[in-house]
Amino acid sequence: MSQMEQTPQQTKKWYSAFTQGLLWQNRTLLAVSLAVCAAFSGVGMVGPVRVLYAQSRGASLTVIGLMASAYLISNFLFQYPVGWLADRWGRKQVMLVGLLLQAGLALLYLVIADPITFVVLRFVEGIGTAALLPAARAMIVDTVPEDRQGEAYGIFGAFFNSGFLLGPGIGGFLAAFGYSAAFLGSFVFRVIAVVIVLFMVHNTLPSTLSVGMAKSRVSYKALFALPLVAAYLIAFGDYLYFGFEQTLMPLWMHDHIGASVTIIGITYVVWAIPNAVLSPFSGRLADHVRYRGWPILIFGLAQVPLYIIYGFASTALVVIIFFAIHGVVYAFIQPAVDAHVAAYSASTLRAQVQGVYGAIGLVGAFVGASGFTQLYTVNFRYPLFTMGIAYGVCVLIGGITILTVERHKYAHLSEHA
Q1: How far apart are CA 287 and CA 93, in angstroms?
Q2: Which CATH number goes with the domain that contains 242?
C-alpha cells in the first residue's frame, strides 16, 4: 500500500481522532480555533460588501485599489514585528489587541463617508489582522506534538474557513437590508472573538523562552532556511488570489458575471463548506505521509486549471460549481504546508516564522492587488489567467524543493539508523 492509500478502518480512525481526540483534548487549540472562526466570520461579512460600499460612497477603481494596497502593506509591515512581540510579550495579549482594534474599525466605517479616509482605515485594519494569525498559529505549535501538527492545522484551517463560510453568507444577507448592517454584524463577531480569547485562551509563552533568549543570541538565518523559503514561495503564489479578492473579485462577479451581493456571498460559502469539512482529515494525511511535498505538488498544481476556467466563465453558476471543487482541492494542500512550516520552525522563533510566512504571502497579495488591477483595465479575464500560471510556477518550484529536502532528511536518518 502506498503512503497515500488508506483503508476504511483508517478513515474511521481519522474521524474518531477528530471527533474524540485532539480538538477536545487540547483546550488551547479549541479556543484559538473558535476565536479565529468568530474573527474571520466578521472579516467575511464585509469581504464581498466593502468594495461595493466604497463604490457607493464615490470611490473610484483607483481608490479601491489603494484601499487594498494600504491593507496589504500594513499587514506585511507588521507581520514580523507582531510575531517578534508575540514571542516576547505573549500570544494572548497580542491577539486581544488585534481583535479589539478590528472591532473598533468595523464601527468607524459607519460614520465615515470620505472614500480617501477608507484608505487610512484599511491601513490600520491591516495592523489588527497582522496581530492575529502569527500568534494563533504559534500557539498551536506551542501546545501540539509535532507528529499531530498537521491534524491540528487541519482543524484550525477548518474553523478558519468556517468563518469564511459563515461570514459572507451572513454579510450578503445583512447587506440586503443595507451595507451598514454587514459592518455591525462584523463588529459583533469580533467582540465574540475577544470574549473567547479573554476567558478561554491561556498564554502559551514558555517561561524559559525569554530566559533562553536573554542568554543567547538568536540566529535569524533560521528564519530563511531552505525548507521555509520553499513554503514562503508557495504562500506568495497562494496570496495572489487574496490580492485579487480584496480589489477585483466583487467587481468581476458583479459587473461581468452578473452576480448580486447575495450570490457573491454564496460563492464564498460553497468554497468554504468542503474546505472546512475536509481540512481536519487532510491534516491527518499530512501527518501520515512520509513526504509532504507530494500532496503539496499534486493538490497545488490541480488548482491551476481552475483559475483558467474562472477566466473563461460567463455565468455565476459556473463560478459557484468550480469554487466548490476548488474548496475540496485547497483543503489538501494548506494543512500540509502549515505543518511543514511548523516542523522547520526553531522553538524560539515560532511566531516570527509565522510572521515572515504571512508577510511573504502578503507581498504576493500586494502584487496581485496592484498588478491585477492594471490587467483588469485591459481585460477582466487576464488577472485570472495570470494568477493561475504564476501560482503554478510557485507551487512547482516550492513543492519540488520541499520534496528534495524531505528526501535528503530521510536518507540521512536512514544512514544513521
Answers
A1: 30
A2: 1.20.1250.20
Is 177:49 a contact under the CB 8 Å cutoff? no
pLDDT at residue number 3: 35
Is 192 inside a domain boundary? yes
pLDDT tens for 29-42 read 888 999 999 998 98
CB-based burial of residue 385 (10 Å sphere; 0-12 exposed, 13-18 middle, 19+ buried)? Answer: middle
Does residue 389 fall inside a structural domain? yes
Q: Which three cell numbers stand for residue 88?
A: 516576547
Cell numbers standing for residue 128: 489588527
Residue 9 lies inside a defined structural domain of this protein? no
Number of C-beta neighbours around residue 24 at 10 A: 11
Within 225-349, residue ranges assigned H as helices are 226-247, 249-251, 261-288, 293-301, 304-312, 316-331, 334-343
HSE toward the beta carbon, residue 102, CA cutoff 13 A: 35
**Residue 132 backbone phi and psi in degrees, to 5:** -95, -60
Reported as a single tens digit per residue, the pLDDT across 241-295 is: 988 987 888 889 988 999 887 788 788 788 888 888 888 888 888 888 888 999 9
Give the C-alpha separation, 389 to 94, whole Å: 37
> Is residue 259 one of the residues assigned to a domain?
yes
Q: pLDDT per residue over 303-320, tens digit each?
A: 999 999 999 999 999 999
The residue behind cell 459556473 is: 318
d(CA 124, CA 331): 30
Phi and psi torsions of 379, nearest 5°? -160, 125
Task: Locate 86 and state its grid cell.
Answer: 508575540
Cβ-based burial of 146 (10 A; exposed 0-12, middle 13-18, buried ≥19): exposed
Residue with cell 490600520: 124
Q: Which domain holds residue 87?
A: 28-204+222-415
Structural domain total, the chain = 1
411: left (phi over 0), alpha (psi -120 to 50) or beta: alpha
Q: Count Cα neighbours of 264 within 13 Å in the Cβ-side half-sphere.
A: 28
Q: How far apart are CA 389 and CA 310, in angstroms?
A: 13
Q: Are 348 and 76 in contact (CB under 8 A)?
A: no
Between the alpha carbon of residue 129 and those of residues 47, 48, 102, 324, 369, the distances in Å are: 14, 17, 7, 26, 17
CA distance 386 to 305: 12
